[in-house]
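Give me the fold.
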Amino acid sequence: MTKIINNFKPRLLRLRDAPRYLGMDRHRFNVDVRSYVTEIKIGNNGVAFDTLELDAWVDNYKQYHSRPPVKQQSNIWKIDKHSKHKNKINIKTPTARQESINENFAEALQLILSQKSK
C-alpha cells in the first residue's frame, strides 16, 4: 500500500494500490472501476490513477448502488434550522413530572445528608 508520508496522502496511486484504496480486490477493480477512470502512464510500464477520480467513482457508485440506513437516528438532538446560528442544538426540556421527581430527589438527599451529620 502506498505510504502516507509526513501526513500527506499521494494524489496518484499505482495500479497495485488503487484496488485496496477502494476496498476491493484487483479483479473487481479491473471489472468495475478501471474502464471508468483515467489511466496515467508512469515511466515505461507503470500505471497510476488519480485519487480524486477514484473518490468521484465511489460517490457515483454509492448514489446508484446503496440503500438508506435501516435505523434512523434518535430525534433527541434536533438542529434548529430557523436560528441565526446554523449549528445551534435544541435539547428537550424536562416535563413537569420530571421536575417534580428532581425536587423529590433533592428533598430526600437533603434529609439523608442531615441525618448523617447528626
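The helical segments are 18-22, 26-32, 51-65, 96-117.
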